[in-house]
Amino acid sequence: MHDIAAATLPSGTLLPSLGLGTWKMGENARTASQEVESLKRGLDLGMTLIDTAEMYGEGGAETITGKAIEGRRDEVFLVSKVYPFNASRKGVIDACERSLQRLKTDRLDLYLLHWRGEHDLEETVAGFEELRRAGKIREWGVSNFDVEDMEDLMEVEDGENCAANQVLYNLSRRGIEHDLMPWCQERGIPVMAYSPIEQGRILRNTELIRIAKAYQATPAQLALAFVMRARNTIAIPKSGDPHRVEENSGAARLEISREDWAALDAVFPPPFRKQPLEML
């Protein structure tokens, strides 16, 4: 299936607006083979962006990802993230090398700072830029950055090269729509939405279920479609079940009426003022 809409990085690189998350993968040897199969199935369905991090399973998720992309690396837009405490100039470079070894690849397409920590942004960006010049990463970005953090980043040398911001965003957590999402959209920086179905917690909502049924869709598909309807926004649901991955892929084909989006707004209201950036 190749009808998944595309998001665009500032460089013009296209990537699918529906990808594959790996949080909580690689933590249990008994489920490892099914997790690998889930990622492979997602790739088959056109969900060719895989998001992982050195933090997930302390490298376990990267190992799972490495197995899933074996022999098909060129199909995949591969994203990983560095721990803040590893984000000194040298630390970023060393952490990236470890991630590449676990992923069994020579490059990342996008490398993110997982959240802002004790190291100066100047140091982190200098490390990212060094990796970029060396061909170890194609682009770099950030995660869990609010508007103020993004503005601080833009003040740093080469900070304007930031290619993405990955944050918590779903129907029940819409705070970024007030300021952060428009800020990123104005600058052509895609927003990557983690936990786009709130780890399943929103799927029991009666209005979500009612509207999904009207489209012969599942509540999860509708929740993902909501995230993807925002311009240049990428949803990265995680599932270790190949059947659930197939189900998630159907979200890309949903076309929801304005009336039904308005009905969801009534249950999951958009923000009317600035809210602190939420994190999981």
What does this entry show, briefly?
The protein is an alpha/beta fold. It is built from ten helices and ten strands. The protein has helices at about 30-45, 60-70, 90-105, 120-135, 145-155, 180-185, 205-215, 220-230, 240-250, 260-265; strands at about 5-10, 15, 20, 50, 75-80, 110-115, 135-145, 165-170, 190-195, 235.
Number of continuous helical runs: 10
Main sheet record: 8 strands, parallel
Q: Please bin the fraction of helical residues.
A: 25-40%
Q: Any idea what the shape is?
A: globular
Whole-number mean pLDDT: 96
Element-level helix/strand string: EEEHEHEHEHEHEHEHHEHH
Instruction: Show unreliable segments.
Output: none
Please supply descriptive tags for the structure shown above:
280 residues
What layout of secondary structure does this protein have?
Layout: E1 6-8, E2 14-16, E3 20-21, H1 32-44, E4 49-51, H2 60-68, E5 77-82, H3 89-103, E6 108-113, H4 121-133, E7 137-143, H5 147-155, E8 165-168, H6 180-186, E9 191-194, H7 206-214, H8 219-229, E10 233-235, H9 242-249, H10 258-267
Helix pairs in contact: 1-2, 1-9, 3-4, 7-8
Write a structural description.
With 280 residues, the protein is an alpha/beta fold. 37% of the residues lie in helices and 15% in strands. The chain is built from 10 helices and 10 strands. It has helices at 32-44, 60-68, 89-103, 121-133, 147-155, 180-186, 206-214, 219-229, 242-249, 258-267, and strands spanning 6-8, 14-16, 20-21, 49-51, 77-82, 108-113, 137-143, 165-168, 191-194, 233-235. Strands 3-4-5-6-7-8-9-10 form an 8-stranded parallel β-sheet. The protein has a two-stranded antiparallel ribbon with strand order 1-2. Helix 2 (60-68) links the parallel strand 4 (49-51) and strand 5 (77-82). Helix 1 packs parallel to helix 9 and helix 7 (206-214) packs across helix 8. The longest helix has 15 residues, at 89-103. The model has no long low-confidence stretch (mean pLDDT 96).
